[in-house]
Amino acid sequence: MLDISSETVPENPQPPTLDEASAAAISIDRERGNFHFKEDYAYDAGAGLSESVIDYISRVKAEPTWVHDFRHKAFRLFKAKPLPTHWATPELLNIDFDKIRYYLAKSRTPSRTWDEVPDDVKQTFERLGIPEQERKFLAGVEAQFDSESAYSRMKDELASQGVIFVGPNEGLEKHPEIFRRFFGRIVPPSDNKFAALNSAVFSGGSFIYVPKGVKVAQPLQAYFRINAESFGQFERTLIIADEGAELTYMEGCTAPRFDSATLHSAVVELVALRGAKIQYITVQNWASNVYNLVTKRGVAEVGAQIRWIDCNIGSHLTMKYPAVVLKGEYARGEVISIALASDGQIQDTGAKMIHAAPHTTSNIVSKSISIGSGLASYRGLVKIPEKYSHCKNNTECDALLINTNSRTDTYPAIVVQGSQNSTQHEATVSKVSAEQIFYMMQRGLGEGEAMSLAVNGFINDLVKEFPMEYSAELKRLVELEMEGSVG
Question: What is the pLDDT of residues 117-141, one digit of tens each?
Fold first, then answer.
């Protein structure tokens, strides 16, 4: 029991208001990622998007005709498609596509050892701790610097089992029979404006294939680093887990802070064949000038499982809704997400579950934190057609408001037809209690520590879903976010 007999209690103490208690504590320390090196690129497509820029990218990569044609078709779709039409759309108008640089690379091919990586790139990833993480707990790493991977390596024992973990360039060149079969099928260019943009200028990312029955015990990780100003990063990730295969894939993202807008628009496609399991984990810590507009979708066949675990911290605007199409009977989809919106930030995140077979199950658990003028929204879709039966969905959306001017919105769309399906939806909005903060402060905690403890308690059950290395980092980020926010 805590002994407070010797504590000095101020006369007529008054708990601080939460606006006072939060005013300074919510500026996440991004200094770990807020650095960049002088630009020195061998390949530079210049600013602006045109057919000549697409030709340049395709020519540098020495791509076959079908990929070149795929890019140009996507470019036409991008020009024709409107921006998304909901309340975040005005923010998208701040993106000047004519000022973005769409392809910057030091080399076309990644190094296989850290010693071979260019010094400035190597220093970047060393400061971010990537080589150390690889040595400690990873089965393979893909480290992307602007448009291309600078480093790519996987443990030899996985290669001997037939596992493929390379970038899309190498996947297309060395494994075309697998790559072309699935590429662009889960997220076609016609899906939305930013999927079309990615399809036109995609570069970098990961291509993974895990053969039948192979279970990858350690995680594979990709790290996406933006170094250049007024740049757009458009990685493309395609993961196929064959029948009975299992893997965990983790991605991290950082960028330095610039005055101009930085665009990140990725596409991720997951394919889990019969009985396979894919777990995809994201921890993003973008700078506050980044527009993070991504499309992520997976297809789960009979008895397969796809699990998205997603943490969104940083960026000026994030629009991200990981989706699972439950295509086979007894397939399972799950999205576990945390979003933290600080002053001037918009986190528009959520999930989509499309039940396309009977006896399928989906689970969505979303927690958001809004700080200062930050705006966090859950935007979700659950769809169960009438022709399928015995489908189940659970959706939970919990929001925590730190200040009186903080805002959260929930836009759940649940369409359930038929008489033998079940869904349940639960949503809560709460505010950190001033009395709770005051109580902890009277027992020796600083104001920032008290707020951090309250917020970590709110998300703790979800943080435990992340691997140990990432959960410790998440708690550290929240603690840094709370420092100085109180008082």
Answer: 767 666 666 766 666 766 666 778 8
